[in-house]
Amino acid sequence: MLSFRELTAYLFVGASAALLLTGCPEISESTGGPVDTCVEAGVQCRYAPGKIGVCFANTENEIVCRSQH
Description:
The structure is a single chain. This protein is of the alpha+beta class. The chain has two domains: 1-27; 34-69, no CATH class. It is 33% helix and 25% strand. The protein is built from two helices and three strands, in the order ααβββ. The protein has helices at 4-22, 27-30; strands spanning 44-48, 51-57, 63-67. The protein has a three-stranded antiparallel sheet with strand order 1-2-3, with no helix packed on it. A hairpin with a 2-residue loop joins β1 and β2. It is elongated. The protein starts with a helix and ends with a strand. The relative contact order is 0.13.
């Protein structure tokens, strides 16, 4: 019977192999990338050059981009 440590190691190796074989989708494939103009809350946007933000509704009920940090 496998010990907990051995079982955990096998599961980790198996999960790692699955990720390496299938890869991760590119941002452009899954979401279309960050938008320049917000029209929907919860969408990634370009907050500043080289910085990503998220679109949200402010207190005036406008959809604007704000920093994620």
